[in-house]
Amino acid sequence: MRTERILSALLIIIGLIFLGVATDGYKAFTLEQKRVTTLETTTPKYPNIEVVDNKGRTYPFDTFKGKYILMTFIYTNCSTVCPMMEQNMKSVYKNIDMKRYKDDIVFVSLSFDRERDTVDVLERYAGYFDADGETWRMVTPTSDKDLKKILDTYGVIVIPDGDNNFQHNTSFYLIKPDGKLHSVMKFQDIDSTTETVQQALKDVR
């Protein structure tokens, strides 16, 4: 009986050790939590891909160097989570004093649906959320290679559902002026995101 109790205790200890390793010190109990924890630990820098925006301008992503970037990954044909995420992005945008910080931050909604999200489509979509095309831009990479680079950098998984739609990760990504990741935030939490962005901007003034 005593031997069985000792073996049971050892198995529990071993299980806890493996759980701790697998969940990064018990911080990540889902794949999404694991992804976010990994990103915030490694703070990757964005790749200098080329994008085209909703005004038809083509430029390297490095154009935003020196500014904070608040970014989402979307596709305009999404009828579920993307509109909610962009509406919350709009709320955060309105909470920020953009007249004061227009040179310090840019909001970027990046579409991974290159085939359908043309310049005209992005411009129309921008209008739904009052994105001005300057301090808030809708963009998409100009090549599949560049799209893969930025998706891989942030661990964004895009899975076609067979009905011209996609399953994908949904978060706000705050990127520092040096291009490295600052934080990943839940898009549902407008107040917390606003606070994080405002605090970051205070540090540049």
From TrEMBL:
Cu cation binds at C78, C82, H168. Keywords: Copper, Disulfide bond, Metal-binding. The keyword Cell membrane does not apply. One of its GO terms (molecular function) is metal ion binding. The lineage of its organism: Bacteria, Bacillati, Bacillota, Bacilli, Bacillales. This is Redoxin domain-containing protein. CDD domains: SCO. Pfam families: SCO1-SenC. Residues 40-202 form the Thioredoxin domain. InterPro entries: SCO1/SenC, Thioredoxin-like_sf, Thioredoxin_domain. Disulfide bonds join C78-C82. It comes from the Bacteria. Belongs to the SCO1/2 family.
